[in-house]
Amino acid sequence: MICWLGGNGCASLPYRYGNSRWGDGAPDAEVVYEYGKPQKTLDNIAWLTGIWSRILPLNSHVNNRNLTEETKEKLTAYLEENELTDVLIRVNQYDPKGEWRRLRENHHVAAGWRYSAGVISLIHYSVIPGRVFGGDQYNPFTNTLYLNSDVSAVVLHEAAYAKSIHAQWLPGSYAVVNGLPVMSLWRHTQGVNDILGYAQTNEDWTVERETYRVVYPQMGVRSMSLTGAFVPFWDGLLLRAGGAAAGHATGYVAVVQRTKERKLQQDSTDQPEKTAGASPDELVKRPRKKHMDPNLQVTDFQGEIQTEEDAAVERNELLE
Q: What mean pLDDT is predicted for residues 274-300?
């Protein structure tokens, strides 16, 4: 959180790819996507319930119940490069039966955690479905990623949690601890750092900028949601709005800083290219006084007297 408040994030660099301990996510395996069927009435209700989640980050693609090909390609690349192809992607889909089956079959998480915390997570999934109320979330107990937004940084941020879970010796315990109110902020911060590192490593300014402009405000809302749970409803809304505003301000500062850094990096990269293409005369060009006498005598390094024309010839010979 200190990095988030600092304005420019703490990107995980050098970026570390694919440290999964599960062994099921082969890089060459195909990532499976499942889509919910369109239902006009249900989709209209879902659109209404998602208005608040779009207003706070000021992005119409949050909870828009869609996944464009561009976002899908970026998510697929991230999952493949980090050995997470065993994660099932459900896009705007409600499938309690399939999730209960995946809970039983996910032997990477201890049975004790699956049939306690895992059951609670599926009760929540069944009673308060994302198909209606929106949200993007990774469920470690079923190894499923639920998506309802079409923002690359948002979906990659949740996929980063899957990467973190896959790297643990005790994924069930890790998931339960990180599901606690305060600790959940820590795991979201880790996810932000991972995505910033991934974006900077791949020079994907679109994802990096979306992280600052969309995920940062969401982080602000989450940080205030903890306090909002203990105050009246309307006061809680104001706190969440204040958290979103703080996230927008922090993200704006980060965008400005990173834009300057990227420009400096680009200038430093271009400078050697300009020097390499310059002619010898341009490299050694020196200012001369107007009407300088060509026969003016100068002294070389050996103390011998020579004319300016002789000195110029000598410089050209050295360059050659």
A: 51
